[in-house]
Amino acid sequence: MGLLSLLRKLKRSDKEVRILFLGLDNAGKTSILKRLADEDISEIRPTQGFNIKTVQKDGFKMNVWDIGGQKAIRPYWRNYFESTDILVYVIDSSDRIRIEETGIEFNTLLEENKLAGVPVLVFANKQDLPTALPASEIAFGLNLHAIRDRQWQIQACSAKNGDGIQEGMEWALKTNK
Amino acid sequence: MVYCKCCGCITCFRCFESDKKKSDGIVFLTIGINNTGKTTFLHRMMNDKVEEPTPTWGFTTETVKFKKRNITLYDVGGSPSIRGIWVNYYAETYGIIFFIDVSDEECITQSKEILETILKDEKLKDKPILIFANKVDKIEKFEYMETYNKLNIESLISQGITSVNKILLYPCSSLLINKERDPRIDSGLEWLITRVNDDRSYIENKVKNDTKKQNREFILEQEEKQKRVEEYKKLRAQQEVDQKQQEQLVSNTTNNEEIPLISKDKSKSRSVRSVKVYPEEILPSPE
Fold first, then answer.
1. What is the CA radius of gyration of chain A?
2. Residues of B near A (CB-CB distance < 8 A)?
């Protein structure tokens, strides 16, 4: 560990949690983030960089990093892996075909050393749509069922009506304790 | 008095070490319907104070110290739509810890069917199963035989799905009792470990072989997925090309339709012009 990262670690208080939001484009990362911060979600454009928000919850300070999912931006994800406490992976659970596709991206992500052992919360977004898949099929599509070295949780949610988002964050905070 | 196996002394360091090593690597899978207290049990084993974890929709693992042994516990979600993942953990487990909520009749009825299905799985064959009749703190009196019969354990044994010494129904409470873990949890677990040790070499071998097989299957699945994704990508690229062509075709046809319109207009304008031109043409002609 370098001196800088050591200092960075010392600087962070115990009550601070760093949460990294990743996922393919149009999965709903920014919408969920805005929901968390009680902001308007009616007009969201594709994220061309990143959004950082600090949300207070249960006495915790959550620093949430939302990084764009466009193909061109994905190589830059790795710059944000350091000192991540919880990885949140957002998927569009209404799109059967894209789950396996996002699964491959997701599995390369899990091989990263800097994310080793970091608990994963999968936000199965767009559950308000009728084609949403059940949790066990999502687990299979993302290859979660083969994981043994970290905790994972699937949280069905809908950024559109706000369902499930609080529950997911509660899990993240309890897991981080 | 416990004598060691290597030299017959009361305590010897070598034995202790080998015993420790031997116990390492034991994996137990906790399953059961949602809200039966599986994750709360995990927290009891971790010796923390969590009383109400959020419902599990996934997988949690912890390696805990229990009576000087290291045990790895797998905790999975029990809601109907996530139960499909259970089967992926059977290969590695040395025994099953099955949870039921004795305060919920519906849960017992459902558990009966689930119990039979999971025990029929080839990967769990001859592995011991401990059924924790959890939440006894919520009912006035726990009727052991009644629950035993409701779960149809007798018939599971007579059908040969499991055997008398491989299955145990045991009451417990996963909540803290006077800030401590319920001692019945310890007794139940000790029974399970003893049963595993009785058949240690058989179970170890089975776990080894089944895990190897399963890992191969996981790799194959992953490769198939990769292929499917490649095909989707190709298909989608093709669709995009088709769509573009279609669009072009549409715009071409609209152009075609427009062309006659324009040409009509042109002809009209020409004719108009020609009308205009006519006298001019006529004009020079006399010249």
1. 15
2. 50, 53-54, 56-61, 77, 79, 81-85, 88, 92, 218, 221-222, 225-226, 228-229, 232-233
